[in-house]
Amino acid sequence: MNVRLPAPPRRQLSTWLLVAALVALVLASFASLPLQWSAFFSPDAATVTMEFLTGFAPPETAPAFLRKTALAALETLSMSAIGTLLAVAGGLALSMPAAGRFGRVQRAVARALLNVLRSIPELVWASLLLVAAGLGPFAGTLALAAHTSGVLGRLFADALENADPHPERSLVTNGASPTAAFCYATLAQTLPQMLSYTLYRWENNIRAAAVLGVVGAGGLGQMLKFHLSLFQMQSAATVIIAMLLLVALVDAASFALRRALTR
């Protein structure tokens, strides 16, 4: 028996106007930018690029330089780990009022603060904090903590708001204190999701920590900026390889931990 499918819903005029505006915006972006595609794919550009890339080979393998690179990698790893831990504490503290557990006014204030924290990129935070904390990994760690607190606080608040409220209400009705009911019901529901968010942000922070050194926040990024500024390409190649290895190791460890925690 042939069954006729229902007619597709009619598209509203506002939908077509929105699509047309997005297409016009993309076309205007290409038209306004001086994109020199012919120069980019010219033989001269290919020659210069090959000369630049061959300058990175072979990477610097002197034992003293490798030890220095390993210490910088540990510094970058420490920045990302401590920054993420501080962000978890700040995100949890702000997620409670942001989830509306203390009233509408506190929710609006906490949400606005989270928006400010996560709207400012890590590089901007590092540039601002370098003035107060000086050069080195301390400013980079605080920059990661500030930005990630805004991200995790918003994610944690959304997880708390979307949690099923009935288990917590049942515990309170049966005589449990509000704190105990929250910890054993709502927090227990959202904890695996929060841990997954935390590990994912740690992956992002290890990449950000490797870049923050460019503005003087220490770690591998600071080494990379130093050697590139002196056109020491072979030393820079070793630092770039260390960055790739560090990011790959952290990604693998975070993926394994997320799978183990969410099973």
UniProtKB/TrEMBL annotation:
Statement: the UniProt record of this protein carries the keyword Kinase: no
Domain ABC transmembrane type-1: start-end pairs: 73-251
InterPro entries (alphabetical): MetI-like, MetI-like_sf, PhnE/PtxC
Compartment(s) of residence: Cell membrane
Transmembrane feature ranges: 81-102, 123-146, 236-257
Membrane topology label: Multi-pass membrane protein
Keywords noted in UniProt: Cell membrane, Membrane, Transmembrane, Transmembrane helix, Transport
Family under the similarity heading: Belongs to the binding-protein-dependent transport system permease family.
Protein name: Phosphonate ABC transporter, permease protein PhnE
